[in-house]
Amino acid sequence: MASIEHLIDDMLHIQRRLGETVLQARADPSHRGAVIDMRRRFADTVLAVSSAIESDAFIHDQPALAAEFRQRFSEIRTKVAIFQAKWPAVLLDSHDPEFDQSAARLRESNREFMDWARGALKH
User: What are the residues whose beta carbons fall under 8 Å from the beta carbon of 91, sequence distance 6 or more?
Assistant: First the structure.
């Protein structure tokens, strides 16, 4: 299993790639499938992080950190789920400013979590 730090880096990388892929899909709807694939990769990585939280010895040995990690990560998972439910790939070519604002808020929330997690995981 990959380290939790590596998985969080993967989440950040996938998020960046997903943003690029969404821009491509807006210009050319044939890229919608790639958006779905990237969303799936992000979801798979989120599941891997969830498993890693439970098995990481550093987190496990610190109950307060483990609880905060789970709580913050749960918030991120919820925000991602709501965003993806509200903005399915078929709506990406609408150039809706609300999408852009919503995506920016989600990226910022994810970035804040990832920055916090990196700091919390420094041994």
Answer: 99
Give phi and psi for 68, each to the nearest 5: -65, -40
The pTM assigned to this predicted structure is 0.84
> Per residue in 2-41, is it b (16+ CB within 10 Å) or e — as a string?
eebbebbebbbebbeebeebbeebbeeeebbebbbebbeb
Question: Domains of the chain (ranges plus CATH)?
Answer: 4-120 (1.20.120)
> Please, what is the average pLDDT of the chain?
90
The torsion angles phi and psi of 96, rounded to 5 degrees, stand at -75, 125
Backbone torsion region of residue 95, taken as left when φ is above 0, otherwise alpha when ψ lies between -120 and 50, otherwise beta: left
